[in-house]
Amino acid sequence: MLKSLTASARSDAWRTVAVQALDAYEATPTPVSSQAFTFSQALLATARLYGWDDPRVPALISEIMALRNPDGGWGVNTAWDAFQDGSTNPSTTTYTVTLAGHVGPALLAAYQHGMLPDGNNPEPLQKITALLMGTAQYSSSIGRCVSYSRAAADSATNNSSRCVHNVNAGVADYLTQANAAGFGATGLQKLVVDIVRFEIATYNPAWSGWSYMYGQTTKQDADHGSYTAASLYFAAYPVGREAAYQLLAAPATDDAGRRAHLRLVSLPGGPGSQALDGSGATLWAEMGDQWLDEASDYVTSSAGDASRLAQAAAAAAANSAAS
Predict the structure, then answer these.
(1) At 9, is the pLDDT very low, low, confident or very high (cuts 50, 70, 90)?
(2) Which of 6, 90, 245, 263 has most Cβ atoms within 10 angstroms of its Cβ?
(3) Burial of 31 (0-12, 13-18, 19+ CB in 10 A)
């Protein structure tokens, strides 16, 4: 049976988890290979908890900006064989999910609060939009898929198995949010439409979800699945909602499931997504009450892992604000 918390108690409980995670993050070194992701999550967590005028905010933005690749994008800053096929990408490779899922949302929020460097210069966000639009794509009658990275070895144009569903859905969601903030490009709306068509066509109703890569016959793990669901929540609401519901309702059997719970609690309301108790809260916030102890335990078990701690802090802070 679900716990039943008041909005104030729920917000306070999630804030406690977020502070626990951010405090632990700040005491933990960040490995080179995850800095763009980790600093972006830490930026969102800090701003959500303490405000965009917190003195740590400019320092985190500077750390993110210092990690830019020669093409103006961001990646993992280390050589990596993304598909384990012997094609190692150089350390300067720009990855699609780093743009659309990690750095992009953090810098977009900073821009909306007037916090980007050089007088809130929008250039980094203009570049992210341009890079996403210009990344190689797989096209078919069911839509389009944006490649995993800008490295030739990861191009989906002639290899549809390089289509990764959560990455592709994340591009549609980010471009929509960026466009609402004033960052457009020729063909942007058409690309979003084609990505959404692709993801609806590849949705498996038996799973209420997707495979990880196009053509696979096994379901995405819960962590990647929750990113796909959240990314499609606005663009294809009934599909995104059903995928989110199933993930948030299911007990977690691993850390991927626990991260899914953390990510989905802050989804906004919508048709069929209001709390059952009539409190005015969202269904997602109400469902998340049962996972509060799990979230705190996850933070404790993440000691020494800066990326996990920063991500948990950002998600829990968003959950607190949404409660």
Answers:
(1) very high
(2) 263
(3) middle
